[in-house]
Amino acid sequence: MAEVQSAGYDEFPTVDKCVSTGREGQTVVADLDGTLLRGRSSFPYFAIFAFELGGIFRMAFLLLAAPLAGILYYFVSESAGIQVLIFSTFVGAKVSDIESIARAVIPKFYSEDLHPESWRVFSSCGKRYVLTANPRIMVEVLLKDYLGTDMVIGTEISSVAGRATGFVKSPGVLVGSKKADALVKAMGDDVSDIGLGDRKTDFPFMRLCKEGYVVPAMPKVEAVTRDKLPKPIIFHDGRLVHRPTPILALITILWFPVGFILACLRIAAGALLPMSIVYHAFLVLGVRVRINGSPPPASDKEKNQNGVLFICSHRTLLDPIFLSTAVGRPVSAVTYSVSRVSEFLSPIKTVPLSRERAKDAAMIKSLLEEGDLVICPEGTTCREPFLLRFSALFAELTDQIVPVAMRNEMSMFHGTTARGWKGMDAFYFFMNPSPLYEVNFLNKLPIELTCTGGKTSHEVANYIQRVIAATLSFECTNFTRRDKYSALAGNDGTVAEKKTSGLVANKAMGC
To answer: What distance in Å separates the CA atoms of residue 478 and residue 475, rounded to the nearest whole number?
Structure first.
């Protein structure tokens, strides 16, 4: 919704006047939009849910309903406007899908919009409560798991047979006096020490607190930086790169069919043209490929030379293809199971691992005898500036190792997913107007830093992880593929039986 100015409200001092020291034993109650968050509009977050639940069609439905929501918001009631947004976003959606998006997608966007002054006060208190007109199911994971909130009191959506009806449960959307009533019901006779709000409809619950502070709409402030968050967000899912304002949502909807056609052209160029000219074809089609460092020449089979093993950081399933583009020749890739669509479209040879150590080791040695090979030992992608733990098997099989630091930039869509259909990953990456792939070839490992030189496989893997991280200014972690899928998809990233449906298998086992 549009901003609601709090300037001129004299009942409460502004939040910058609140002293945050010595509050460890006190309780704070804060509103969300415009208070704990800088943004006063909840539309971008509803738009994210709409896109993840139903793609551009549901987001278009939400966008069409937004003017009606605005009219009701200003001329009828705040509650009526929010109800329209809730209905157009959630009607007919599975509650389990809503919960999944709230866990895996939305915390990233909310955490990038924390108000510094509100967070300073909120984080200083020992007990933290949040009152919000937004559906509780949207925000509870962020507030409890990432911001240390003790209780979230929000609007409750209704459901039938596991699907949202689009309506809300009694007492309705929590605004005005309903927030105060909900706070009294939750806290009983206890009185909160601090109340934080940003508009007059927050004043009823703020009056119940010993101290009340209002968060002004102006001036604009910078969001809380990543390093000041109590818990970093390393894993996140979802296709949208940025929070969709109404204008950005409209641009996304209009671009989608154009972008899909462009993606088909780009994929066709990569799949059908000789690898030696793919770089130039990508350039013509708006895909930027930046190459740093000098790749080694191809192995000479006539001299019985084994191939070089490229060890890459893993950003999307396209890493091996862009590496092949950078060296100007096809380089075979070992995969951790990709969709059949991706295998069909791949211009390079892909060989899936069996996850049986001896069998995989023999297969990798055989591939190196045939030529160069690329492996992404993280086993899964990570969007944030972190590297997951490197599997060490590769280090035992060759001493001809070249680390490659991969980096990419996308302006509209992410080319990875843990929850959705991975067959669309390449399409979503190439649907970005002008995506960038940066391929950084690092120095070949000297013999003394390989297993041949006396190092253990884990020492080699950890060393390469650190070298790549330093090149990209990333952080090394001990998180694994299992950790990622546990956080985002609620499973361990493996599928026991091949008869599992393709969609589920791709969710669990994709790179």
So the answer is: 10
Q: Are 98 and 166 in contact (CB under 8 A)?
A: no
Write down how long the chain is. 511
pTM score over 0.85: yes
Nearest C-alpha neighbor of 327 from the set 368, 357, 298, 370: 298
Helical axes 95-104 vs 481-488, angle rounded to 10°: 130
In 59-155 the beta strands, taken as DSSP E runs, fall at 127-135, 151-155
For the stretch 20-49, pLDDT in tens is 999 999 999 999 999 999 999 999 999 999
Paired strand residues for 436: 288, 409
- Please say whether the beta carbons of 196 and 119 come within 8 A: no
The predicted-structure confidence for 41-81, as pLDDT tens digits, reads as follows 999 999 999 999 999 999 999 999 999 999 999 999 999 99
Residue keyed to tokens 């007492």: 171
What would the pLDDT profile of 173-229 be if each residue is shown by its tens digit? 999 999 999 999 998 878 899 999 999 999 999 999 999 999 998 768 899 998 888
How many CB atoms within 10 Å of residue 350?
A: 18
Superfamily for domain range 15-219:
HAD superfamily/HAD-like (3.40.50.1000)
Closest CA to 81 of 62, 64, 68: 68
Hey, where are the domains in the chain?
15-219, 246-509
CB–CB of 193/26 below 8 Å? yes
Query: Which own/partner contact pairs does 262-267 have at CB distance under 8 Å and 24+ positions apart?
Result: 262/286, 262/430, 262/431, 263/426, 263/427, 263/428, 263/429, 263/430, 263/431, 264/427, 266/430, 267/345, 267/426, 267/427, 267/430
Query: In angstroms, rounded to a whole number, what is the distance separating the alpha carbons of residues 358 and 337?
Result: 18
How high does pLDDT run on average in the chain?
Answer: 91
